[in-house]
């Protein structure tokens, strides 16, 4: 269950948010001691923070800056002060989004869910993909086989990542060209063939002959 911390001094709004988000399956707490937000933040350890701008003692920008000293948790500002200056200030202080009051609770919930998906959905997944004794390190773009390691170029890495993710299945040439086209440099069919040929030579040098197989007229596969 994802934890939401609400830093809002209007307790009617805070209670409403807590009830609504609780109905959506979130664990929710709101701040009551505005003198020491950081202590409550660290003890609760939320996955996302909803932060008002105007608060007792110190404003939301201050607490956002303080949180950013110790955490990269997503912070969504909620405020009626929705002019461009405040929005820019919120982003510069480390905020992830700015929602203007009054807001629709369903819109707020959708934004929270989207931010949580982006922030946490891939966490906990390994940075290494293994297939038949070959390790592809997604963190540093290297490939290891037995006691040998090779550094991969950007295109090598992109190709191998797609092939590893679809290991045992044929990956079409179109899918591979799309991955090579991510940086918006045009890649034609011949460019893909050249990249595959170069990659195969690198793999052969560490003992991986025929590791990438061609399925004529369809694409490539690692079995």
Keywords:
alpha/beta; 223 residues; Rossmann fold; 8 helices
Describe the protein.
By secondary structure, this protein is α/β, with parallel strands linked by helices. It folds into 2 domains: 3-120, Response regulator (Rossmann fold, 3-Layer(aba) Sandwich), CATH 3.40.50.2300; 128-221, Arc Repressor Mutant, subunit A. Helices cover 41% and strands 21% of the residues. It is built from 8 helices and 12 strands. The chain has helices at residues 11-23, 37-44, 60-68, 84-92, 105-120, 154-165, 173-180, 189-205; strands spanning 3-7, 27-30, 48-51, 75-79, 97-100, 128-131, 134-137, 142-145, 148-151, 171-172, 213-215, 219-221. The strands form 3 sheets. Strands 2-1-3-4-5 form a 5-stranded parallel β-sheet, with helices on both faces. Strand 8 (142-145) and strand 9 (148-151) form a beta hairpin. Helix 6 packs across helix 7 (173-180). The chain is elongated. The model has no long low-confidence stretch (mean pLDDT 86). Residues 126-223 form the OmpR/PhoB-type domain. One of its GO terms (biological process) is regulation of DNA-templated transcription. This is Stage 0 sporulation protein A homolog. InterPro entries: CheY-like_superfamily, OmpR/PhoB-type_DNA-bd, Sig_transdc_resp-reg_C-effctor, Sig_transdc_resp-reg_receiver, WalR-like, WH-like_DNA-bd_sf. Keywords: DNA-binding, Phosphoprotein, Transcription, Transcription regulation.
């Amino acid at each position: 269950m994802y934890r939401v911390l609400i830093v809002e001094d209007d307790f009617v709004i805070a209670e409403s948010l807590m009830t609504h988000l609780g109905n959506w399956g979130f664990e929710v707490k709101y701040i009551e001691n505005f003198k020491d937000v950081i202590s409550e933040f660290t003890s609760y350890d939320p996955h996302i923070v909803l932060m008002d701008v105007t608060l007792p003692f110190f404003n939301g920008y201050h607490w956002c800056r303080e949180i950013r000293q110790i955490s990269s948790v997503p912070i969504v500002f909620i405020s009626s002060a929705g002019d461009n200056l405040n929005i820019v200030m919120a982003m510069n202080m480390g905020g992830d989004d700015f929602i203007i009051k009054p807001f629709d609770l369903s819109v707020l919930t959708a934004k929270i869910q989207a931010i949580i998906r982006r922030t946490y959905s891939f966490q906990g997944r390994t940075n290494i993909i293994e297939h038949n004794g070959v390790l592809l390190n997604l963190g540093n773009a290297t490939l290891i086989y037995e006691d040998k390691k090779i550094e991969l170029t950007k295109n090598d890495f992109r190709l191998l990542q797609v092939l590893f993710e679809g290991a045992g299945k044929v990956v079409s040439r179109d899918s591979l060209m799309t991955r090579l086209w991510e940086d918006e440099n045009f890649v034609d069919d011949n460019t893909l063939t050249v990249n595959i040929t170069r990659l195969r030579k690198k793999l052969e040098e560490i003992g991986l002959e025929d590791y990438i197989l061609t399925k004529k007229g369809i694409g490539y596969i690692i079995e």
